[in-house]
From TrEMBL:
Protein name as catalogued: Histone-lysine N-methyltransferase chromatin remodeling SET family
Protein source organism: Helianthus annuus
Lineage: Eukaryota, Viridiplantae, Streptophyta, Embryophyta, Tracheophyta
Entry annotated with the keyword Transferase: yes
GO BP term (any one): methylation
One Pfam family in the UniProt entry: SET
Gene Ontology molecular-function annotations: histone H3K4 trimethyltransferase activity; metal ion binding
Length: 150
């Protein structure tokens, strides 16, 4: 998808079950790093991989927030790009017995072809109209990458 950027592809037909791993941050530290990354990334070829996941109660209120930064330490999931059409992966919080925190896992949301790029939705692009340019190429691309105020 990107000439200079890394992406993630499926090279077999196994069911996708991949956890996003990285440094677990406090919200204060996530906000501090996001400001640093915004400055470093704009206008350069560097990318960041700070994922903020909120778990919501049925009422709609957020009850758990997890900040995982795979920019320096992480696994292959840090190369999964955003797609405005929702992509082919869904994120699910998976709880293992005895674990304090859930894991953020990716599951296939539809059949995925061999060599197809893996993508998911990073969020709502409408949140930040000044976000960076989106190159997902989907027919419903908003042209702007989702980027929330962390
Ligand atoms: C988790 S990383 C994904 C891997 C990244 N492409 C790389 O080369 O390291 C997230 C970063 O990738 C870039 N990215 C992901 N999806 C994109 C898209 N649809 N359009 C433009 N840039 C994208 C952005 O710079 C974003 O901050």
């Amino acid at each position: 998808m990107f000439a200079q950027r890394k992406s993630c592809f499926l090279d077999n037909h196994d069911l996708i079950h991949l956890a996003f791993s990285g440094e677990l941050l406090t919200t204060k530290e996530a906000r501090r790093r996001q400001l640093t990354y915004d400055k470093l990334v704009s206008g350069s070829k560097r990318t960041s991989a700070l994922l903020v996941v909120r778990e919501h109660l049925p009422s709609g209120n957020a009850c758990l927030r997890i900040n995982i930064d795979a920019t320096r330490i992480g696994n292959v999931a840090r190369f999964i790009n955003h797609s405005c059409d929702g992509g082919n992966l869904s994120t699910v919080l998976v709880r293992s017995s005895g674990a304090l925190l859930p894991r953020v896992c990716f599951f296939a949301s539809r059949d995925i072809l061999k060599d197809e790029e893996l993508t998911f939705s990073y969020g709502d692009a409408g949140v930040n109209p000044n976000g960076s340019k989106c190159f997902c190429g989907s027919s419903c691309c908003s042209g702007i990458m989702p980027s929330e105020h962390t």
